[in-house]
Amino acid sequence: MSDTKDMDRQQRINAYWNENNRLIISLLVIWFAVAYIPPLFINQLNQIRIVGFPLGYYFGSQFSLAVFVVLIFYYAYAMNKLDSKYHLKDK
Question: pLDDT band at 71, cuts 50/70/90?
Answer without folding.
Answer: very high
